[in-house]
Design goal:
Structural class of chain A: alpha/beta
Shape of chain B: globular
Strand content of chain A: 15-25%
Structural class of chain B: alpha/beta
Order of helices and strands of chain B: HHHHEEEHEEEHEHEHEEHHEHEH
Strand order of the largest sheet of chain B: 1-2-4-3-7-8-11-12
Strand content of chain B: 15-25%
Number of strands of chain A: 10
Radius of gyration of chain A: 22 Å
Oligomer: heterodimer
Order of helices and strands of chain A: HEEEHEEEHEHEHHEHEH
Distance between the termini of chain A: 54 Å
Helix content of chain B: 25-40%
Number of helices of chain B: 12
């Protein structure tokens, strides 16, 4: 191999400067088994699914109808939890979908629920770009509780890939549904990924409406925060520092997330239903931006959060649309 | 020999973009009401004089015809430079994406006074490349009185690998009960993880870092980007309104609309392997030095939607394209002309100056470098000003 003298200097950067680990993982026991759904319709089975999303091992709650098989492939739907929520909050939707013959996978985003943490190196390790992969035992910082909306969208897109890998799933019949910010993610996934052909956004949070679609200009306080994160933002190492960092990063990343601006990229062939509370103001303008089939269903007397009966109604409306359009 | 400190023989700078990658770039749908640009001649406004090109006609003629200057990659000799008297440099670390450490090299002008106010320029490398291949541009901008930073993207060169490149080789037992845990664990570290989405984040983190540098005016930040870095930059100008001046070197970007991409056939099969195992197929990329990258980059890199981001660029931006007339990888200067015309229509100050007769890798050295770096510095000087 040719070696360039200019680059010989570069090796110096990789001298390890190990810092003492802060061992605050007391419990290294394996996780408890996944909690089964409170109720499961007849002819539906439940299991925990696992797949990788950008190197993080994710977990999901998989509801499979007995009717789905390799010879009778079923449509499949990815379910997206709301802001700061986990997959188990969507059991009612997954159960209803599976009861209607659709494979349903509720996702734990990276750093949440039963999915893996986001990893950072707690010390320098020596690497060598020409050797693409190297294994190290090193101090690793596991961060949980970050909410990077764009990464969550990637988690959902990789969940679609996982569903397409299943022998009992029809690769051409994929839908996506989500609650709250997960409803905003439905818009993002469908605007970026033509595999998602049908969507349902439930009491969705779709930021960006009514704002000028121009580049982000931070106010003075936000800019100061961005500068501080870039200059002093090594991974936090204590619980209190991490909580503060999560709050800050989640606020900054959320502030730049504009799924409303993506509505017009959803293909004309895709179909979207909005299930909204009576006082919702964003879904109807969102529907107007769409080129393809769409409708808006209102849950009577609903606020931002649906109660059990309203959830049941929303789940039926979700399954109805997905079944009809897939 | 675990953790041995070794020479970084790396991915030496591949300051270009393979044709195969460009074929994957979203084709611009017919832009509403605009006729396609067919002429190679720039007819838009000239915000800075381009007489230097004609003055160097002999140099360009020699560079485009002489065997000595033939290039299908940049060569180590093309990366060399001499620091101007008084220019000083410093290695710095900065952070992206929750704490991944990136490294940059700062260049300060002669007589730098941290109590004064200087424009700051972020200098970004190309596909599967390294900052070392293009830091001479940062040196040039410092020579012209600006503060500049050249940096390696995440998982390249001196910069660390981040969450996207660390695969845990044991079960992750952490739970939501604890937002942070630290322990010794086996990990597989991936390098050269080509990914425009991560490059965009790194670019923005470098802007933030530079804004906070004593002596740099946070309201006078510019960017210079090389080749595929220019594709990232075309998205960046529509994403980050902090930039006031941008120079896109040997790349263009025709306008287009946001669009959903399908995933099927072999790319889907590869994606399935990725979600099942954490790692999909690899492919060789690069020019001056070749390494493997993930095949997946072809799908993932489109997600920055660079064609559609042009329309989000604010009139506070000023964008200069410096394409090569005979660019064999992106078809000459067509996409630069189309992008610049579109930006101009949308109220953004923009200009194209074409390197006559040169191919993709020639403008990094010889007459191409002298003229290109001068024009870039002229652009920054005009729209960012000097020391205050």
């Amino acid at each position: 191999m040719k070696s360039h003298s200019l680059l010989a200097l570069a090796g110096l950067a990789f001298a390890a400067c190990s810092t003492a680990p802060t061992p605050n993982v007391a419990n290294d026991a394996p996780r408890a088994a996944v909690a089964a759904p409170v109720s499961l319709p007849a002819n539906v089975s439940f299991s925990e699914a696992g797949w990788y999303s950008e190197q993080v091992k994710l977990s999901g709650r998989l509801f499979t109808p007995a009717s789905a098989s390799a010879s009778a492939k079923a449509p499949a739907v990815v379910l997206a939890p709301a802001y700061g929520e986990t997959a188990d909050t969507l059991d009612a939707y997954a159960a209803e979908l599976a009861a209607q013959g659709i494979v349903a996978l509720a996702v734990d985003y990276r750093g949440w629920g039963r999915s893996g943490a986001e990893l950072y190196l707690g010390e320098r390790v020596s690497t060598y770009d020409a050797q693409r992969f190297s294994e190290h035992t090193a101090d690793v910082i596991y961060r949980r509780g970050r909410i990077d909306p764009e990464q969550q969208v990637q988690d959902l897109r990789n969940a679609i890939t996982y569903l397409q890998s299943l022998p009992n799933v029809d690769r051409a019949k994929i839908g996506v549904a989500g609650l709250g910010l997960g409803g905003g993610h439905v818009i993002s996934v469908m605007a970026m990924d033509a595999r998602a052909k049908v969507g349902v956004a439930i009491t969705p949070d779709i930021p960006g409406q009514g704002e000028e679609e121009k580049s982000f200009v931070p106010d003075a306080k936000t800019q100061a925060e961005m500068i501080k994160l870039a200059r002093e933002g090594a991974p936090p190492r204590t619980a209190s520092a991490t909580k503060a960092r999560n709050e800050q990063e989640n606020r900054l990343m959320g502030g730049e997330y504009k799924p409303f601006w993506r509505l017009d990229a959803i293909p004309q062939t895709a179909a979207v239903r909005f299930i909204i509370a009576e006082n919702d103001t964003s879904a109807r303008p969102a529907a107007k931006e769409l080129k393809g089939a769409n409708d808006v269903k209102v849950i009577a007397k609903a606020g931002a959060k649906l109660d059990a009966a309203q959830t049941s109604e929303a789940a039926k409306l979700t399954a109805e649309w997905l079944k009809q359009k897939l | 020999m675990r953790h041995a400190v070794r020479t970084l023989a790396v991915v030496t700078a591949l300051v270009g973009i393979p044709a195969v990658a460009l074929a994957q770039t979203p084709a611009a749908p017919p832009a509403g009401g605009r006729s396609p640009v067919t002429s190679g001649e720039y007819t838009g406004p000239k915000h800075i004089p381009d007489a230097i090109v004609a003055q160097n006609a002999a140099g360009f003629a020699e560079q485009s015809s002489s065997e000595k200057w033939k290039r299908s990659a940049t060569l180590p000799e093309d990366w060399n430079y001499k620091l101007a008297p008084g220019v000083i440099t410093k290695q710095v670390s900065f952070y992206v994406d929750g704490g991944t450490r990136l490294q940059g090299k700062m260049f300060y002008p002669n007589g730098f006074d941290a109590k004064a106010s200087y424009p700051g320029i972020v200098v970004a490398h190309g596909i599967n490349a390294l900052a070392v291949g293009i830091e001479k541009y940062a040196a040039k901008f410092a020579e012209r009185g600006m503060v500049a930073i050249a940096f390696d993207y995440q998982s390249y060169g001196y910069s660390d690998s981040g969450a996207d490149e660390l695969l845990l080789l044991e079960p992750d037992t952490t739970t939501d009960a604890s937002v942070v845990s630290i322990k010794r664990a086996p990990v597989r570290v991936k390098r050269t993880n080509l990914n425009n989405v991560e490059e965009l984040k790194a670019f923005r983190a470098a802007i933030s870092f530079l804004q906070g540098e004593p002596g740099v005016d946070p309201d006078r930040i510019g960017s210079w980007s090389s080749s595929n870095g220019g594709t990232v930059s075309s998205a960046l100008i529509g994403v980050d309104g902090r930039l006031k001046a941008t120079v896109i070197h040997v790349m263009g970007q025709a306008p287009g609309q946001l669009r959903a991409f399908d995933l099927n056939g072999p790319a889907l099969d590869d994606a399935i392997v990725r979600v099942s195992t954490g790692q999909g197929a690899e492919t060789e990329a690069g020019f001056s030095f070749k390494t493997n990258v993930d095949n997946w980059y072809r799908s993932r890199s489109r997600d920055i939607q660079s064609a559609a981001m042009l329309e989000r660029t604010r009139p506070t931006e000023h964008v200069l394209f410096l394409p090569a007339e005979k660019d064999e990888l992106i078809g000459g200067n067509r996409s630069a002309l189309a992008g610049s015309a579109f930006l101009t229509e949308h109220g953004v100050t923009s200009q194209v100056i074409t390197f006559p007769g040169l191919t993709h890798f020639q403008p990094y050295s010889g007459t191409g470098f002298q003229v290109g770096s001068t024009l870039a510095a002229d652009w920054f000087a005009k729209f960012l000003g000097g020391k205050k």
